[in-house]
User: What shape does this take?
Amino acid sequence: MTGRQHVLDIVIVGAGAVGACLSHALTVRGFEVGVVDAQTGDEGASIRTSALSRASLRHLSDLGLWPLEGVEPAALSALQILDRSGRGRLRFDSADLGEEDLGAIVNHGLLEAALRKKARALGGPWVRERGEGVVISDSGVEVATKGGRRIRARLLIAADGAQSVIREQLGVPILQYRYGQTAVCADIRLGNAHEGVAWQRFLANGPCALLPLPDAHRGSLIWSAADQEALRLRALSDADFARALQDAFGDHLGPLHVEGERAYFPLVASHARHYTGPRFALVGDAAHRVHPLAGQGVNLGLADAHTLIRTLQSARSRSTDPGSRRVLRAYERERKAENLAMLVATDLLNRAFRTDRTWARAILGAGLNVTDTLPLLKAFFMGAAGATTPRLTHDAL
Ligand SMILES: Cc1cc2nc3c(=O)[nH]c(=O)nc-3n(C[C@H](O)[C@H](O)[C@H](O)COP(=O)(O)OP(=O)(O)OC[C@H]3O[C@@H](n4cnc5c(N)ncnc54)[C@H](O)[C@@H]3O)c2cc1C
Assistant: This one.
């Protein structure tokens, strides 16, 4: 792989959940795939969880990547959504879909580690260094790493996350918007059993979610607070933080206690002007980043991976060059509309409910029609769960 003469089919830069999934699936499908990833080990559990939709679980299962050793999922049976007043309530049950569950909550670090392990076990070239430079030519692409290696391939897949150096090197512009919010994440001990229900309360300065963990009395907190508020929360002791959380979230799950450390993530929306170009494709957070309120980042990235795998496999069966523009454009066309729609929908919901009003008033305030929007809102969250298309995005915006 380090020799200048050898040309791989595909080089993937970045092996988070999306890159590792692609690496495994494309190798299994007969492509010669090399990976460049900045992580020096497989890492382990993180403070943050991810909600995997039913669609993602189906995709992973089709790829032989679900269930995953080392990842203990908590089944998601319902979503309970509250507005700030507590009077506006919406509940979405798996029974509405005729399904056993709406998806699963997993520890994000363990998910990544398990996918990396599966991908690496296939024995393809794997360089644990940062990718730093890219040169594209008519016949191929060359990635330069921090340690001075050069990897050549016919197609480059940039899966190196939101701060993608590769995207920058390729000169792809992004539209970016800072929410002025920071997600505060922590494990929380719950007074009442969660019964598989994910709670989300829309507060004045952002949504506060408690997602079920495998232990019936533990929940994963994702509290999107205004930056100033997040700074204040950061300075609090665990006991004071738990009191602030209890005030904000309410008593729905009994007394709340913080377990372990807290983590903080500034929230940003971004979207790449294009996902593909000569001999390259962007996937996952390198291409798009959405507000976590609908728990969709990894799901959109895995959907990118699913589409790209299908597109490349079909190109291979026709003996078409995987780096050809026609092949890559098919991937971009299919994914861009859905990703953009989710970005706009989550942004709209985040804005609409940062008020002290009930659902109905907030919906009206956002210029939407209540009768039309409540079913659409339901369809949106069900779509986010992966069973239907998130219709709010197409029909209401
Ligand atoms: C608070 C919070 C909660 C979230 N909750 C959910 C949720 O419930 N459900 C959901 O679907 N999504 C959720 N998301 C979003 C989700 O975490 C991301 O969308 C997802 O992790 C993106 O995956 P990725 O593989 O594209 O990128 P990343 O996870 O960022 O992985 C990028 C990889 O590239 C590597 N890398 C970076 N730079 C280089 C380089 N120059 N060279 C080589 N390697 C490089 C990194 O080491 C890493 O391995 C949440 C996000 C946040 C912030």
